[in-house]
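Technical annex B. To support the medicinal chemistry partners, we prepared a structural model of the target in complex with copper (II) ion, based solely on the information shown next.
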Amino acid sequence: MRKALVCVIALVAVAVPAAAVAQPAAVKPVVVSITAVNARPVGGIKRVTVKKGQTVRVVVTTNVGSTVHLHGYNIEKPVKKGAPTVMVFVAKATGSFELALHPMDATLAQITVKP
Ligand SMILES: [Cu+2]
């Protein structure tokens, strides 16, 4: 009896903070994580499809390169050595967009935005 009560209290303690920080699905970003070694994406070019209006969070970890560039959206982020490069954007334009690592012009990902 006492054990069951302790268990219920423990469950409530875990569930309440989780519910308090939960965000609505619409504002939750789609995370695209890429690790590149010597300008090659580990596991191959990442292909991701998102819906128009979604927020996309691109996280690139790379040992080389100076900038990460999302073609079409024309967003460029300088690469920080020893830290992930983070690019956040709202997928407003539909189509297929290449994420490249410069100056070597290596394709890291292909992000497709569907209406
Ligand atoms: Cu580019």
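Notes passed to the chemistry partners:
The beta strands are 30-37, 40-41, 46-51, 55-62, 67-70, 75-78, 85-90, 95-102, 106-114.
DSSP finds one helix and nine strands in the chain.
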